[in-house]
Amino acid sequence: MPTIKEGLTEPISKFDDIYNVKHFIATLEGVVRIVGRLPEDLRNVNHTSVELPHKITKAEIDNKIRPIFVKSSVIVLNKFLLSMKDVKDERDPEIEAIRCLVQYKALQFQPQIEKLGNRLNNRMKEAAQSLGGKYVAVDYRSTDKACGQRTDNVFTMPKGCLSPLDLGLLLQSHGFARETAIYLTQTRLDESFDPLLKLYPIVITKEYSMPFNEENQFLYSGMTQFELAIDFYICSHSDVLVPIHSSTFYTALAGERIKQGFTHMLVPRLLRIAREAPEATSLTLGVPRIVTKRLHPAYSCLCEQGMSKALALVPSSPTSR
Asked: Which GO biological process annotations does it have (predicted)?
């Protein structure tokens, strides 16, 4: 089974801390052999770590990975992440089908995370409905706060970052009403978020909305993966998603929303105001090209032909179904 790690200083999470192991194994039965741990005779063998792009071809596996595997016996596939930069024109149908099967069928959060995510999602819907509107999930964390300066609605953002005040002004400029219910992936709010709260008083975070016992379990576990799993669930079910930065989290999240038919996503765009002052830009929100141009891999995976190829890999036994 895979292990999960977020950052260099965090402890490794077990796969079953986050995902439903039984569902994962059952979905891939007959396609990929999965065991819980290495056979005893291989446990003391030195492991060789190999970094892989998400879109890897059979030729690359044969030329780069297989020789290492033959020599080492045990390899660890490290940093196997989905990135739009890895998308290639030439795709192997079998590898693509397996990838689709894993990404959109086999990976399912474990029941406790789904239960908590569903509860928080319902709270957000209730908050929005009481105000007669929908709720917006904004993927924004404290690391995004070291920002450029704003003068008369002109943004200078050399690092592409956004302050809480500018986040509020961005939402305001797109027409979101003051009463809009906002879920913020930032775990907890400090005084730097006061300017945002003046513009949008209904900002809800995990810390605010979780029951105390689950708050202690998830928010103070020292494992960011728990928090990311909750954020992923809520952001994939919100009426609107506003991701502040492009990242592997956003790419995976966009795929899940496309799978569910929730394609209402708005991404920040910097527009140059004048040619003579290229550093002066105006920030707007727009529909991402991965939706308008159908560039996200989810579209090819989830089309009738793509999913048929994926499901064709699975034997028609009762257990695999």
From this structure: fucose metabolic process
Instruction: Note the pLDDT of residue 92.
Output: 76
Q: Where are the domains of the chain?
A: 20-108+297-320, 111-287
The pLDDT of residue 78 is above 80 = no
Bridge partners (DSSP) listed for residue 53: 81
φ and ψ at 169, to 5 degrees? -65, -35
- Name the residue type at position 186: Q
CATH of 111-287 among 3.40.50, 3.30.1370, 2.115.10, 3.40.390: 3.40.50
What tokens does 74 get?
Answer: 């045990």
Please write the tens of the pLDDT for every residue from 206-260: 876 665 555 555 555 555 788 889 999 999 999 999 998 777 889 899 999 999 9
As a three-state string, the secondary structure of the chain is CCEECCCCCCCCEEHHHHECHHHHHHHCCCCCCCCCCCCHHHCCCCCEEEEEECCCCHHHHHHHHHHHHHHHCCEEEEEEECCHHHCCCCCCHHHHHHHHHHHHHHCCECHHHHHHHHHHHHHHHHHHHHCCCCEEEEECCHHHCCCCCEECCEECCCCCCCCHHHHHHHHHHCCCCCCCEEEECCCCCCHHHHHHHHHCCCEECHHHHCCHHHHHHHHCCCCHHHHHHHHHHHHHHCCEEEECCCCHHHHHHHHHHHHHCCCCECEEEEEEEECCEEEEEEEEEECCHHHHCCCCHHHHHHCHHHHHHHHHCCCCCCCCC
List all residues 6 or more positions away from 161 whose beta carbon is below 8 Å from its beta carbon.
Answer: 144, 145, 146, 147, 148
Q: Do 298 and 258 touch, CB atoms closer than 8 A?
A: yes
If you average pLDDT over residues 275-296, what whole number do you get? 79
Q: 193 or 99: which carries more pLDDT confidence?
A: 193
